[in-house]
Amino acid sequence: MSLAADAFVSQLAAAEPWPENATLYQPLKEDQILLSDCASSLAVQAYLRMCGLPVEVVYRANAEYMSPSGKIPFIHVGNQVVSELGPIVQFTKAKGHSLSDGLDDVQRAEMKAYMELVNNMLLTAELYIQWCDDATAAEISRPRYSSPYSWPLSNILSYQKQWEVRRKMNAIGWGGKTLEQVYEDVSQCCQALSQRLGTQPYFFNKQATELDALVFGHLFTILTTRLTSAELAERIKSYSNLLSFCRRIEQTYFDDKSS
Amino acid sequence: MAAAMELRCWGGDWGLPSVHTESLIVLAYTKFSGAEVTVSPIDWTWKTLTATVPELLCGNSAVQEPAQILNFLRKQRFNADYELTAREGADTMAYIALLEEKLRPALLHTFWVDAENYANLTRPWFASRSPFPLNFLVPSCQANTALSRILLTKGEAPLHRITEVEGKIYSDAKECLNLLSYRLGTANYFFGNSPTSLDAFVFGFVAPLHKASLPSSPLQSHLRQLDNLTRFCDSILAVYFSSDHPYG
């Protein structure tokens, strides 16, 4: 969206309170959704729960195509549609709900930097493992991605998505990496997050922020998703404070959710 | 350990030792860590098309990409991050990710995609530093790479038009510069009193934007308002790259 459209939407957003019938759309949970989308969706759900905003999760096979930016998840609130965690955080801020108001400028800079670290490393690694690793792509990603569609559309869509993701990986320089290097990058990212978290309950001590939601979404999904190899989950399990962080957020904000 | 190290990078101009961001990062880090490297600019050679820049040659091994080169230098005991705590090391990784995600697309756009800047500054500079007939190829190759990188990472499928992402990438870049300015505050360097790898990265990204004489750049005007960042670049240039030792 252009800047003018952004400003217009913020103004509209500020006008109305959060409705009861807000919905969050994501692909089908059992058969279709992939690791990276599931992580992003869980991050948004965690953030909305932390803000105390009710939202109903709706599963649709064509959620990716309904989304205004092509990315999952997106929320439908009132008569507006907003996708991805960044814009959703701004949208809720325009409605008067924010988790990071208590932070000063330097802390806010740190928070944004760490969120970019998670996006840059964890999300890219997830995409790489799903689509650039041939074994995972053939066994898990392509079948799952195309499961709602019949042949030959299923083949076309899944290969098209794979080609798109591989192009992007090449453009940012991840095309030449081996799987081992990707796992190593994930370890380093987790080490950085673990050191930043330390022994605190949340990244910015007592209050949960969007950074906590984002980290929880990614780590929890990686830990609970079955891939061709358990290496990724094992790398995360070696950081015990991250594990207890995930457990704490799950118990605090998701205890009414049936797992 | 004392094997001679040679660094291949783009040459310098506008008061900088190199106009290329990645090369600047590596050059700055070698100065900060006290590593002795001979710098061989690839200007006017066929390597302008074939080589991946920057590249560090040490004995038989060649290392590319700033992050890998910095790791290699650290293993050779040239470590500018020796005094950082674990938490500061984690912060370094996070801020580097912020630079890559938020600032790089706008810098690529300013130098390679913006028509006025490309035609008046970037293309003539790179064309004049490449031998015939590469001067026709090198700038346009790099411009295409830059455009496709911006569209693939920031463009929203399936539209993929540069005009739609321009506003967003520039506002992200301005926010990133503001965040760096808040983090730097009144200090000389980002961590304590001696420069570290994060200082090298920030210098590499910000210095070309600060020093290049761009015909049209709202981002450069925004940077000029952030005094502490411009002072940061100037002081690194004065202390580590003074005119009697432009390369080392």
Automatic annotation (TrEMBL), chain A:
Keywords: Acetylation, Membrane, Mitochondrion, Mitochondrion outer membrane, Protein transport, Transport. Residues 40-135 form the Thioredoxin-like fold domain. InterPro entries: Glutathione-S-Trfase_C_sf, Glutathione_S-Trfase, Metaxin_GST, Mito_Protein_Transport_Metaxin, Thioredoxin-like_fold, Thioredoxin-like_sf. GO terms for cellular component: SAM complex. Involved in transport of proteins into the mitochondrion. Interacts with MTX1/metaxin-1. Associates with the mitochondrial contact site and cristae organizing system (MICOS) complex, composed of at least MICOS10/MIC10, CHCHD3/MIC19, CHCHD6/MIC25, APOOL/MIC27, IMMT/MIC60, APOO/MIC23/MIC26 and QIL1/MIC13. This complex was also known under the names MINOS or MitOS complex. The MICOS complex associates with mitochondrial outer membrane proteins SAMM50, MTX1 and MTX2 (together described as components of the mitochondrial outer membrane sorting assembly machinery (SAM) complex) and DNAJC11, mitochondrial inner membrane protein TMEM11 and with HSPA9. Belongs to the metaxin family. This is Metaxin-2. It comes from Stegastes partitus (bicolor damselfish). The lineage of its organism: Eukaryota, Metazoa, Chordata, Craniata, Vertebrata.
Automatic annotation (TrEMBL), chain B:
Pfam families: GST_C_6 (PF17171), Tom37 (PF10568). Transmembrane segments: none annotated. Residues 173-236 form the Metaxin glutathione S-transferase domain. GO terms for biological process: mitochondrion organization; protein transport. The gene is mtx3. It is found in: Mitochondrion outer membrane. It comes from the Eukaryota. Belongs to the metaxin family. This is Metaxin.
